[in-house]
Amino acid sequence: MSRSPTSTPDTSSKQKIENNPGRIIAHFGKRIVIEDAQGQEHRCSARRNLPPLVCGDEINWHYPDPKSCIIHELRPRRSLLARPDARGKQKIIAANIDQILIVCAPLPELNEGLLDRYLVAAALTEIKPVIVLNKTDLLDKKQRLHYQERLSIYQQLGYPIIYTSAHEDEAFNQLSERLREQTSILVGQSGVGKSSLLNRLLPEVNARIGEVSDATGKGRHTTTTARLYHLPDSGALIDSPGIREFGLWNVSPKQLAQGFPEFVKRKDECRFRDCQHRNEPGCAILEDVENGEISASRHASYLRILASLEE
In angstroms, rounded to a whole number, what is the distance separating the alpha carbons of residues 311 and 304? Predict the structure, then answer.
């Protein structure tokens, strides 16, 4: 994970440029929707010398004439969530996020491998992760215990876990409380109910709700671009396009290991400085796996991600 450069205004122009602060709340092709300091929306275009702009970016803008709104400066990003595109290049999803809500569900089936990728991305960008198991209204007592058991490993590692549903008040209120005074992003594969949660949080948004495909068990995409919404009490929420796979961009094996907190406490105790915790002699991580101190399933997930980074 890396931070994108920022650009400064062109000072060669004799015309003085106003530095109106704003924030990008949506991006549709070449047209960008920004919000100014008074909460008013403007449709703008960006100067060509700027890097790619995304939802959540803080910018400076001006009106060179009554019909043109121009973004001329990208202010420094506090955090950035990105993944590789189909060609292996960085695709930024959103910027300036405080916490990432990783939404899972019993349908489509909980995917711990995808969850681990999001957790690594959150760790490397220093964004607080929160695991959200949605659609709990679909679970009976035995099924709920089953998912609590599967997620208990993450709870033991210190990750906050919320069990919620857009259709149950008490469960939903736990999620709502977590969003206060934060800029959060909803992520997760299509069909896990992100749009349903958004509709409950902001009924006026009326996000389209996708159905899970009976044939594949995977969700149909309903959100096509990231969009920032203000919450009634406080805080902001970014809804992101549903993605079935989440890769990690420009991550070294050493950085990957830093995304597994159970590895970090013994990272300096391996015999070899460049140990990748596969089958090296004197590996402290493998020793903990063998002793049951580290989950074998989490280590296997690490190895799968490591292999994908080398492809």
Answer: 11
Integer Cα distance of 268 and 281 in angstroms: 14
pLDDT in tens, 104-162: 999 999 999 999 998 998 998 889 999 999 999 999 999 999 999 999 999 999 999 99
Pick the CATH number of 81-239 from 3.50.50.60, 3.40.50.300, 3.40.50.2300, 3.30.750.24: 3.40.50.300
Topology classification of domain 253-310? Ribonucleotide Reductase Protein R1; domain 1 (1.10.40)
Q: Report the predicted TM-score, pTM, of the whole model to 2 decimal places.
A: 0.81
